[in-house]
Design goal:
The chain has about 350 residues and is of the alpha+beta class. A 6-stranded antiparallel beta sheet has the order 2-1-6-5-4-3, with helices on both faces. A 5-stranded mixed beta sheet has the order 8-10-11-13-12. A hairpin with a 5-residue loop joins strand 1 and strand 2. It starts with 7 loop residues before the first helix and ends with a strand.
Amino acid sequence: MQEGDFKPARILEHLITSVFILDDDLRLRHINPSAEMLVEVSVRKARGQPLDRLLVLPEGMERRMDQVLEAQQPFTEHEARLRLWNGRTVTADCGVTGMEAEGEQLLMLEVMVIDRQVRMSHEESLLAQHQTVRSIVRGLAHEIKNPLGGLRGAAQLLERELPEPELAEYTRVIIEEADRLQALVDRMLGPRDRPRTRMVNIHEVLERVRTLVVAESPEGITVRRDYDPAIPELMADPDQLIQAVLNLVRNAVQALGQEGEITLRTRVDRQVTIGNRCHRLVLMIEIRDNGPGIPPGIEQEIFYPMITGRADGEGLGLSIAQAVVNRHGGLIECESEPGNTVFRLLLPLESGK
């Protein structure tokens, strides 16, 4: 290397971190190739554009960037949600540093997308959460079912000994309520039969669900398809998958009320880690609705039994769906904001080593 060949700009071109150089009006002076790929805009078109035309930062972050210009105090924002101009949202660690070039104060915004790491951490948490809940529910079910059986048996014996037939109305209430509680515990446990697997076309499963939902939904609700016809068949229990997807789609219908839109979307993703296993090919089923979103405060708990945002709901549909998908080696994820709620089912097509 000749003396004088070392230039900072050349270093930026080789960084995997997306770098945005901004003036004091937060207009772009330069972006490196990684940033070009992130925002899908060339450096020539980006230069001179306001940053928020290409990348919308979390609330309050622009104000902190102004403070960097004034006080020269850099900062880092971890796991920031950034919205790109094309509507895509990414999670990233962002660092902002003040710098001077040719007598002008500039800002350097570094963006390291961490969607994959966050997703893996979230998946591990979901799987651990579900296994813990299942263990607790199984333990509770055992403790509840034994006294319920005794209670029901005692009510039946008492009914035979009653001197007046009209008093049997009270023992029937006890028996019926014991049966109702027994059925509730069974639903909390979810499907107990081993999956009866065979090669399944996932679009046949989705079309069965779509037919059922359209028949029972208000006229103002539209169920759209966005299928990838190239998706191969997978080994699964079609009846259990129908039940899992049906629970999710019915939840979407109930969230929409009398009108709205639901989209059933299928795609294949590659090199996806679920739990501690990497799968070369994974089927991704998305159930998207434009309803009000999941109520604040329960986003992290929606797969727990008995957690629901509806006054008349049992809160078992999502828990059962997660149990079914887990038994197929997969996972259900959720993202929600007003106007856009997505439940994403991930099912291995091929297992990685």
